[in-house]
Amino acid sequence: MRPLPLLIALGLLTVLALLLALMVGSITVPASELPAILFGEGSGIHRDIVLQLRLPRALAALAVGGLLALAGVQMQVLLGNPLADPYILGISGGAAVGALLALLAGGATLAVNGASLAGALGSMVLVFGLAHGRGVWSPTRLLLTGVVVAAGWGAVISFLLAVAPQQNLPGMLFWLMGDLSHADRPLPALLILALGLLLSLPQARNLNLLARGELQAGALGVSVVPLRLQLYLLASLLTAAAVTIGGSIGFVGLVVPHMLRLLVGSDHRLLLPASVLSGAILLLLADTLARTVIAPQQLPVGVLTALVGVPLFLYLLQRGYRA
Questions:
Q1: Best label site of 63, 68, 137, 163, fewest CB within 10 Å?
Q2: Composition of the chain by helix, strand, coil, percent to 5
């Protein structure tokens, strides 16, 4: 499929997934009422459900899915590793420690988000500082440092869960598995996503070259070290924003770029925007299922991202090997 029709198709699927998220739940909102509600003309309980509960959460899911997929593409190029995902360098671990400490202290949603962001940014600075040392850092050193720091955060998380009071554990576990139920301010995440994509697209050609190898990219005029630094900072900030809003939602940033490479190839001029839209679609569908499968109870959205994405990815992978 050509790039423009593909992006149009993904855009339409994103809109459909968003509308589905607004209609489906423990109370079904008829499709005929949505236009009036979204344009401010509706009234009653359906209007309150859509505008106050479902729309902010759906927009947050759209933003977080796009952020994670975009960060995943960049991390895989940065580290030259197809197994890289947004969480591989310990950013989510630092965010989790900050959020769990805030939850233990009885903090409200704003305090938890602030502590999560502080932990993510602190982990980003720590990993880069340790990886850089006194010389020029390499992707291998960065990867090893990130994996070790992530393991350290994992030990701290286990300790916090072990000593946490019983009444705090459900909220802590839901955060660790991904939870969008408190995501009521999606605008900052949407702005960060738009800015991240705008900063990434001009570097698409350089990403194509860097993906072929550092030596080849350098020979063709790419300033490799500044580009790697930009990738690290941007991918880390995108991940920090996603984790702050939705907790540790796994799988999206790892598998969405792979699925798209199997479908459309590795040209980042197409892969970057397609990943944003596909990540948004996946998380919108997963969050809709998380709200409805056992309604009125809710499941952690991170569980549903794996249940939705794993079979699809395995199917595409097998089809790719047969081709």
A1: 163
A2: 80, 0, 20
**Is residue 214 situated within a structural domain?**
no
At 211, which amino acid appears?
A
b/e sequence 66-99, b meaning 16+ C-beta within 10 Å:
bbbbbbbbbbbbbbeeeebbbbbbbbbbbbbbbb
Number of H helices, E strands in the chain: 15, 0
Helix/strand/coil for 86: coil
Query: What domain range is 49 assigned to?
Result: 3-75+84-207+220-322
- Spatial neighbors of 236 by CB under 8 A, at least 6 apart, are 71, 89, 91, 120, 124
Phi-psi domain of 178 (left: phi exceeds 0; alpha: psi -120 through 50; beta: other): left
> What pLDDT does residue 56 have?
92
Domain containing residue 67: CATH number: 1.10.3470.10
Please report, for residues 47, 225, 255, the alpha-carbon distance to residue 36 in angstroms, rounded to integers and kept in the order given: 9, 52, 37
For residue 323, the model assigns a pLDDT of 45
Task: Provide the domain count of the chain.
Answer: 1
Look at residue 266 and tell me if it is in a domain: yes
Residue 159 lies in a domain: yes
State the pTM of this model.
0.90
Burial class from Cβ neighbours inside 10 Å (0-12, 13-18, 19+) for residue 6 reads middle
In a domain, 212, yes or no: no
Q: What is the pLDDT of residues 182-214, one digit of tens each?
A: 777 889 899 999 999 999 999 989 998 888 877
Per-residue pLDDT band at 50 (split at 50, 70, 90) = confident
In 3D, which of 74, 60, 61, 50 has the Cα closest to residue 281? Answer: 61
User: Looking at the predicted structure, is the pLDDT value of residue 19 above 70?
Assistant: yes
**C-alpha span between 272 and 229 (Å, rounded):** 18
CA pair distance 158, 1, nearest whole angstrom: 46
